[in-house]
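Crash report, auto-generated. Payload:
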Amino acid sequence: MHDVGLRPRERAIIAAVVKKGADPEVVREHLDELVLLLDTAGAIVVGRITQERERPDISTAFGKGKVQELKELLELHPADMVVFDDELSPAQVRNLEKELSVKVLDRSGVILDIFAAHARSVEARTQVELAQLEYLLPRLTRMWTHLSKQFGGIGTKGPGETQIETDRRMYRTRMQRLREKLRDIDAQRLVQRKGREGLPRYALVGYTNAGKSSLMRQLTQADVFIENRLFATLDTTVRSLELPSGQRALISDTVGFIRKLPPQLVASFRSTLSETLEADVLLHVVDIANPHFRDHIRVVEETLEALGAQETPQIIVFNKIDLVTDPFLINDAEAEYPNCVFVSAERGLNMMRLLQRMQETYDESAILRVLEIPYEDMRIVNKMYEDLEVLNRHDGDHAIRLSVRVPSDKLPLFNSRYGQYTVIAEHPLSQS
Ligand SMILES: Nc1nc2c(ncn2[C@@H]2O[C@H](COP(=O)(O)OP(=O)(O)OP(=O)(O)O)[C@@H](O)[C@H]2O)c(=O)[nH]1
Ligand SMILES: [Mg+2]
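Recovered output after restart:
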């Protein structure tokens, strides 16, 4: 594992550039979340500082005067590092470290550190290491300045540069190997998936700590890891469950999202998230007891969009209703979010209602189409079994009659692939 820079029980001052006229309540919430992230990483926050600016200063994020103020704050409350809520460029980090003489990190660096500490499986460890190297590569100069200080090498610029080049090459080679390893893991996953085709697939998604794993356990009795901390889950787990109709279905639990999730992580976790991307219905779990749940919903929507899963039918599962004391909250949420259910994963409240909604949403998300395919196109029949859920088959005298479930969002693709065959009947699946 590569170290992005955090040691347990280190002391930190947190900093943020705030847009002029920003809501102070929102600013506070964002900083509170950074405190929580640092706490999860094992560090203690000893001070906060913000500056109102249209955009961060290109070389030091804060303006000159504010950097001075930050220096004074550091004298008053000694800390091992300053952590910015904003994404910092490698140059900003370098300049700030020079000015402040302490380690400077950004939010992405902290999240990467947490992921590194929580990764267990080979796949998660490989993905996190790749993301870390991608994050570190452009920041290597800074790493070297650290090293050169450590070895008393200040002023040895020439050898330093050579060292950086060597390190960069090493990093690139390592990244290449990690990518190959992930490709192999991906290939294995495809094999594992073969046996599961044709079953309805649900994916739990949501902000970190919303209760996805708790819901997974409640619905399937799976022995998944649950903890009151951020990013408890990093691997995808798939389990089966039974819908009210008696039909078997699959459900997956995976890594949670957060505001400003480092793009390097989203990229390297893409294959872990493939269960999510291929699901028929998303269960978007929301901690309704969190006063900022609307922001969390927005962040999750944005992340789903970045992954290309925004079209998948979705149920908003408001969780932790056992903690809700305001009776209007549920009414308001219900009016605001059309397809939603209120549950408590921990207490097992409203599980049957959720399962029913899961069934309905799945049925409504598709049409039933009956097609006739001539025997000479047997190849196509086989392909359909691979592509789609075949609900019924009748081998007639001249043709094979197949009833297939076509997800609404896949209809154009279906038409382009199988449009030439005669459609005998078609209706919404929920009426079949
Ligand atoms: N009161 C209450 N607490 C809950 C409920 N569901 C989950 N929790 C708690 O919320 C915390 C987070 O639960 P998890 O199931 O680990 O959440 P997660 O969404 O999987 O979180 P990550 O994997 O970290 O993204 C735990 O402390 C759970 O015990 C609920 O219905 N009511
Ligand atoms: Mg979890």
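Post-recovery validation: The radius of gyration is 26 Å.
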